[in-house]
Amino acid sequence: MEALLTELRAALDGAVLTDPDVTYPYRHDMMPLAPHDQPLAVVLPTSTEQVQAVVRACGAHGVPIVPRGAGSGLSGAANAVAGCVVLVTTKMNHVLEVDPDNRLAVVEPGVVNLDLRDAVEKHGLFYPPDPSSYDWCTIGGNLATNAGGLCCVKYGVTTDSVLGLEVVLASGELLRTGRRTVKGVAGYDLTKLFVGSEGTLGVITRATLALRPLPQAPATLVASFDRTADAGAAVARVVREGVVPSLMEIMDRASIEAVERYLKTDLNADEALLVCQSDAGGEVARRELAVVEQVCVDAGASLTYVTEDLAEGRDLLTARRSVLTALEVYGAWLTDDVCVPRTRIAELITGCERISADVGLRIAVVGHAGDGNMHPTIVYDPSSAAEFDRARRAFDEILALGLALGGTITGEHGVGKIKREWLAKEIGPVGLRVHREIKHALDPTGLFNPGSMFA
Amino acid sequence: MEALLTELRAALDGAVLTDPDVTYPYRHDMMPLAPHDQPLAVVLPTSTEQVQAVVRACGAHGVPIVPRGAGSGLSGAANAVAGCVVLVTTKMNHVLEVDPDNRLAVVEPGVVNLDLRDAVEKHGLFYPPDPSSYDWCTIGGNLATNAGGLCCVKYGVTTDSVLGLEVVLASGELLRTGRRTVKGVAGYDLTKLFVGSEGTLGVITRATLALRPLPQAPATLVASFDRTADAGAAVARVVREGVVPSLMEIMDRASIEAVERYLKTDLNADEALLVCQSDAGGEVARRELAVVEQVCVDAGASLTYVTEDLAEGRDLLTARRSVLTALEVYGAWLTDDVCVPRTRIAELITGCERISADVGLRIAVVGHAGDGNMHPTIVYDPSSAAEFDRARRAFDEILALGLALGGTITGEHGVGKIKREWLAKEIGPVGLRVHREIKHALDPTGLFNPGSMFA
């Protein structure tokens, strides 16, 4: 493989890392369950041409490529396999263009989500997708996983904000998909095929993203419930009432406790807390939240509170966003990601309580109630192999529960290297065969991210 | 082929049409330019199982299948090729389920768009995609072409309203894509790959569609301009101001004249007319339209008028929706479909005036200004071969103009059998090769809709 390393060094002005101590942090993402191994090298290209050179060289030598952004993923999709080249896009981090008159931006894949948000906000514009890791995850990773976030209930997921891509194919050729216009149906929708393909079909080197007008400052509602089922019923009823909040999150008792301890605050919450925002502005926001408040009261909320104070709203969101970090006071966390029909949220939460009791581990349920995407998070002692095994068992039982409730095994984190068998269960043999056929058509030698998504 | 016909008759309880007089209307859609030929047979299955039987039988006999809905298409994608079997989905026309609590509907492909709209409106819900032919086109055709309409500026195109599909593959097997949940990233986005694939990859037999809350009754604004360029500038400025109307249509002088003659009314319009609606309701709608009105006045509108009267708003929309029919007083029409960046609309309109003068034919420009999707419509005498040739030349020159302005050759009508060479120009050789690879992976023998989209 020395010949390959020589070629890579020549193509990348020496920016090829091979020292195992230096490449160590590039071996895995944030998912502790997923397998990972020692790469041959880590490369950090700075241009599309360099990416093409890497792909061609690795193709010629039969060495697999694992594309990777910041490594904030939660499925092991960016984890190294033995002897691979990890292709890191973080040095391709330029916002190339912001076009306010056509409401679009053109970016390189290594741009951090928050940096893009800041760059377009200056123009009164808004890039909706906001995964929890928005202050360090990259757009390239967001595209590869079709990332979601708190905004999705109103603004959709990443794929809903992408107009076009530039992708380096397994042949090293450059494919341009999509367009710069709002609409377009010329040919197959290759853009949305690559979005969410987890680096298995090519390397995204550029994206044209659709922007929205910056919404109004949000008004915020919180509602506390004595019974989790009542909070779930309130969510379904909000949907039924035709309200589309800009955010609607749920935290269960375990999440509330962890956050109260971590932030040293009192959330005044009982068994379950709903946090809901409207960014419709003024009278309309007030009307929307009044409907949500009435629904919560009717569903049995023990307390509701509405504020138009931005700082107060931000604090409440900080509480929601702190759950995973807060859980670290109890041990390591392992977060799951199922999405169920919005009418089944309460059943998911009570099912997780049952699983928690079964395995004897704390499971905190937090999630995007507005679209049914829940993140039951298992807390375990990483030094105990037995606890780790039980955590894995709980993780799988939550997936089975999600499927049984008519849901999916992943709402936004992806399949990666931890849910391959579950993907096969969800989509069945015909679906799996179609996946393999498409993969084989675009990447016949299995150059990109082998072993991710499906075997 | 008698053996195939016998198999089809057995599978379809005799519902197999072969008499050329009877099959004649199934030979083509609404695009006069596209080639079409005599099918071997036309079949009208009533179930997924019957579709599977047709696909298996045709596959075994090597006879191609052209899937078709109501035939309202404008690209020849549903046109018969010689000796094919036309598979018509109009008898699979049941709304199988409306689930208000999860805001979704499950439908068969032959459901007429308007029938679905009516079925969900009873539940206070809204299915946005509204192609001009919404009162007779089918959801299956909408899915196959990724149809748009007047709603797209705010609510997106068909693909934005699809959660999952059931598709009969070339093998006759049934593929289920997507899910019933709002979010989901389990595997490749096969749903959005089939949407807009124009019947070249499989036959859609069922769809799970996302619904929205029924919007408020719309308020309507019209603005008349002495200069087309001013109307174009106003559109770009509305985008810049961060307003997202629920509809923003443009009509040029030729469209206005035709409609005034056809409807025997006076639209009080000069060179160009903008029609804009807000369905945000009450104060917000008034505020949005006030911004649009101010923008129009600043851009040089000679007249603006705002109304909250529903009947008046409906009349104005009827004028817009009547353009194609109205043009028939002058001859046959041939409508094009380019989408350009919203800042280039005025250039497209003035370019069409130039092309009109060049070829000596009336070209009316009408379109969805809010998303840059314009339908320059060429009027010609169908009894004159020379005029038909000039119409075809104008059609192609408009496509070249759209591409030169940074746009796409089709915003919502599709490629079909009339824009194959233009697709190749737009996406280039690498894009075309990827299309062929995906087609070959899913339909290796070329069973479905041969010669559509690409050769």
What would you say this structure looks like, in words?
- The structure is a homodimer of 455-residue chains.
- In chain A, α8 (228-240) packs across α10 and α13 runs antiparallel to α14 (385-404).
- With 455 residues, chain A is of the alpha+beta class.
- Chain A is 37% helix and 20% strand.
- Chain A contains 15 helices and 19 strands.
- Chain A has helices at 2-11, 20-23, 48-61, 113-121, 139-145, 152-155, 190-194, 228-240, 253-263, 282-298, 310-321, 323-327, 345-359, 385-404, 420-442; strands spanning 16-17, 41-43, 65-68, 85-88, 95-99, 104-107, 125-126, 162-168, 174-178, 203-210, 212-213, 219-225, 247-252, 272-278, 301-307, 332-335, 338-339, 363-368, 373-380.
- The first copy, chain A, folds into four domains: 2-88, Uridine Diphospho-n-acetylenolpyruvylglucosamine Reductase, domain 2 (2-Layer Sandwich), CATH 3.30.43; 95-213, 2-Layer Sandwich (Uridine Diphospho-n-acetylenolpyruvylglucosamine Reductase, domain 3); 215-326, 2-Layer Sandwich (Alpha-Beta Plaits); 330-439, 2-Layer Sandwich (Alpha-Beta Plaits).
- In chain A, the strands form four sheets. In chain A, strands 12, 13, 14, 15, 16, 17, 18 and 19 form an eight-stranded antiparallel β-sheet that branches. Chain A has a five-stranded antiparallel β-sheet with strand order 5-6-10-8-9.
- At the A-B interface, β9, α7, β11, α8 and α10 of A face β9, α7, β11, α8 and α10 of B.
